[in-house]
Amino acid sequence: MFKAKDLLGIKELTTDEIYYILETASGFKDVLQRDIKKVPPLRGKTVVNLFFEPSTRTRISFELAAKRLSADVINLSTTTSSVVKGETLKDTALTIKALGADFVVIRHSSAGVPHFLSRLLNISVINAGDGANEHPTQALLDLFTVLSYKKKIKDLTIAIIGDITHSRVARSNIYAFTKLGAQVRVICPPTLMPAEVKSLGIEIYSNMEEGLKKADVIMTLRLQLERQSKAFFPSLEEYFYLYGLTTERVKLAKDNAIVMHPGPMNRGVEIESEVADGPQSVILEQVTNGLAVRMAVLYLLAGVKK
Ligand code: CP
């Protein structure tokens, strides 16, 4: 059922594969509610988390997912590896392989690095975010969270707000929700709307009030200031004025709409605290669901013949 040795992006997955991961994650969510949360499928396997960009949620979540599956886990970051001494990514990856790792979970500022490692190594490579390209496990945990509330994805209206140009979360979620039959709207300043996304069958809005109307799901994104090489809007205050998610704006969506954010949040920039902590917010559930989803990904990839 699951044939690829790696998880590089949502773009490469079929609808059946996506549902298979989500069903497997649902089983692990049950496991995580037991008194004893540890299960043995990855006993004897080693997972290396190789993070060349900061992360709280994804790194901890992969570490915990691997430990819950009884794997050994090694965490390497730019500052703690020999990359600071000038070692290349290729040599670092080959070293990890030579030490007997079975999985590499990679986050990198450059798009395509997981694909490069996938060709280089005959072990499983998992993309934990590559530049502005993709963040597949984030989209999978977002699908899982929406399904838990809405029971289906098809025909839902998903409003994704923010910095689409620099967001790997936006790309992975656009692929994920459109593949499963949702209507995706993106709401963003015209300066943060990349041309290639327009061909993906989505609706594009530059006005929050229009884009949020009757949405089932509101997903607002962090402004990726570290990836913005020039000014795409006059000021953060103006951005919040035009695109900030406020209580008043949430009321434009359906009454039972859920509010999502992949984190980390910039409160007062893309989202008001009252909304982030409000009754429609499922932001912390996204984090919780990420653990089950990442357990499912590791478990399914472990079963693929390399
Ligand atoms: N959503 C997400 O990728 O968060 P981190 O950067 O904290 O991993």
Count of separate DSSP helical elements: 11
- Going across the major beta sheet, what is the strand order? 7-6-5-8-9
Q: What structural category arises from helix and sheet content?
A: alpha/beta
> What is the domain total for the residues?
2
* Biggest sheet architecture: 5 strands, parallel
- What CATH first level of the largest domain would be assigned? Alpha Beta
How many β-strand runs? 9
CATH fold field value of the largest domain: Rossmann fold
Q: Which overall shape is indicated by the principal axes computed on the Cα atoms?
A: globular
Radius of gyration: 19 Å
β-strand percent reads 5-15%
Given as residue ranges, the uncertain stretches (5+ residues, pLDDT < 50) are none
H and E string: HEHEHEHEHEHEEHEHHEHH
Mean pLDDT: 94
Helix content: 25-40%
In whole angstroms, the N-to-C terminal distance is 15 Å
* Second rung of CATH, namely the architecture of the largest domain: 3-Layer(aba) Sandwich
Q: Which small-molecule species are bound to the chains here?
A: phosphoric acid mono(formamide)ester
Kindly report the name of the CATH homologous superfamily of the largest domain: Aspartate/ornithine carbamoyltransferase
